[in-house]
Amino acid sequence: MSLGLTMLYLLKALPYSELFFDNMNMPFEQLCKLMLDRKKQMTPESYCNGIQSRALYPFFIEVMKMKYDEEPFYGHLQFLLTKPLLKLGQTPNNCVFNSINIINLSIENADF
Fold first, then answer.
1. Are 34 and 23 contacting, i.e. CB atoms less than 8 angstroms apart?
2. Rounded mean pLDDT of 11-23?
3. Between 57-65 and 74-87, two packed helices, what is the crossing angle to 10 degrees?
4. Of the residues 33, 57, 60, 75, which has the fewest C-beta atoms closer than 10 A?
5. Rounded Cα gap, residues 51 and 108, in angstroms
């Protein structure tokens, strides 16, 4: 869920961000309660109702179906994020993932 929310933030498409900016003079505890109440009412449709966020809809459906302690099927979630790129004829850049793997292998094989 955090990844999806981060992506919405980067797309400037967080559906409840206006609550924060519209109520900045509200006491912090009251603002937190207001935000929590709004988040509890959110659905995949309400998270992904904008043009920028429409491609994230299948991801949010899967993530919001999961229980808190359920182990995610990461391969499927990664596919749901990759599929819109493939439809556009693009491929995800594996450079970041390969760099992380190289760093992890270097650390595992290092003599400290």
1. yes
2. 78
3. 170
4. 75
5. 43
